[in-house]
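Work Package 4 report. The design task specified in the project plan requires that, given a folded chain encoded as structure tokens, an amino acid be chosen for each position. We show below one input record used in the internal validation round.
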């Protein structure tokens, strides 16, 4: 089971550096986790991810259950073997799909009935079945089944979802997983501070290996996301890892590291890359702009990724405009490398008690 040790806390912020040991390897926090929904980070091979410095990637319970099927993943020895990543993995429980596929599901106190977004067939998820699916997938970290509400939501709706999430967490915790697997609970409660603290208390009572902050980055203002993230992170146990789900921009990550969050995931680096937006140490770069047609410059002169060391902006723009598949690979390599370098630099700053200076650097780059 995953074991977390806190290495150092920055002397003037809540930023933390730690080590999370799992069956498939060691994770150094703070960490960003690339998203591989169906077992593959789009356009990238395991070697690409290794070269970028990734230490853990995500898969999704709902999507892997549909394709290729969790029993198939189990047949191949679990996700880390199936996709030849052979490093730590985490699986989301499908709880976010309760939110994102709201038009295709019906929620009751026992679970959720989905209509498959692929062919419309009926799928029933309960806390017990979700844990069984994740047991087959074999990820090192598995997430409890939860209900995420949109923002804004009235307090009655947020409270009902929180109560359901709490009941489901207890049911998830009663299911036997593989010996190496660690269950993380998810804190819900919308944008209501008292509900969030209620959720923290209910989750912490189970003394789980780690805890996640869910239900943010779903429509609320940024300042609300930051304040709720800070409130929850600092209410959670010091000696357990804290994971902010689905966040976010480089600035979001830098700010929330400063509030004590250890782990992040988001589709933004790869999705934005495919759409022509690259992250650099000078800010966001829209590589499709006409001004880059004849540019000999690297995407980012301060970046050591394969893309930046090998190709010009002019060539990368050409690939984008020509709809070449190579574009998605090279752009995604750059953005994932950038995100991994962001958390590497954050960790270095924490260990040297200079996190405020690092945060100001990121704020200067990404605050308009």
């Amino acid at each position: 089971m995953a074991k977390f040790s806190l290495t150092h806390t920055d002397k003037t912020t809540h930023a933390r550096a730690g080590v999370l040991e799992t069956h498939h390897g060691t994770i150094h926090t703070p960490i960003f986790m690339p998203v591989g929904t169906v077992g593959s980070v789009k356009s990238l091979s395991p070697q690409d991810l290794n070269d970028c410095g990734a230490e853990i990637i995500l898969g999704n319970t709902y999507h892997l259950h549909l394709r290729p099927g969790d029993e198939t993943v189990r047949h191949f020895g679990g996700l880390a073997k199936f996709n030849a990543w052979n490093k730590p993995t985490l699986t989301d429980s499908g709880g976010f799909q309760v939110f994102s596929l709201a038009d295709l599901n019906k929620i009751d106190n026992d679970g959720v009935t989905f209509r498959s977004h692929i062919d419309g067939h009926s799928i029933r998820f309960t806390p017990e079945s979700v844990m069984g699916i994740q047991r087959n997938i074999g990820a090192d970290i598995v997430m409890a089944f939860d209900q995420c509400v949109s923002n804004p939501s009235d307090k009655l709706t947020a409270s009902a979802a929180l109560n359901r999430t709490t009941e489901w967490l207890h049911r998830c915790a009663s299911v036997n997983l593989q010996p190496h697997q660690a269950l993380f609970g998810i804190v819900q409660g919308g944008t209501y501070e008292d509900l969030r603290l209620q959720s923290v208390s209910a989750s912490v009572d189970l003394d789980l290996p780690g805890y996640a902050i869910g239900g943010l980055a779903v429509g609320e203002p940024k300042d609300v996301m930051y304040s709720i993230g800070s409130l929850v992170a600092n209410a959670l146990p010091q000696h357990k890892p804290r994971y902010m789900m689905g966040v976010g921009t480089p600035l979001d990550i830098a700010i929330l590291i400063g509030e004590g969050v250890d782990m992040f995931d988001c589709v933004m680096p790869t999705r934005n890359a495919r759409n022509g937006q690259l992250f650099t140490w000078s800010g966001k770069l829209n590589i499709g702009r006409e001004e880059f047609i004849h540019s000999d410059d690297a995407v980012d002169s301060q970046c050591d990724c394969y893309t930046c060391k090998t190709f010009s902006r002019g060539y990368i723009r050409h690939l984008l405009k020509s709809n070449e598949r190579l574009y998605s690979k090279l752009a995604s390599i750059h953005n994932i490398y950038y995100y991994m370098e962001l958390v590497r630099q954050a960790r270095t700053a924490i260990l040297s008690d200079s996190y405020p200076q690092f945060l100001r650097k990121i704020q200067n780059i990404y605050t308009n």
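The mean pLDDT is 97. Validation will be extended to a larger panel in the next phase.
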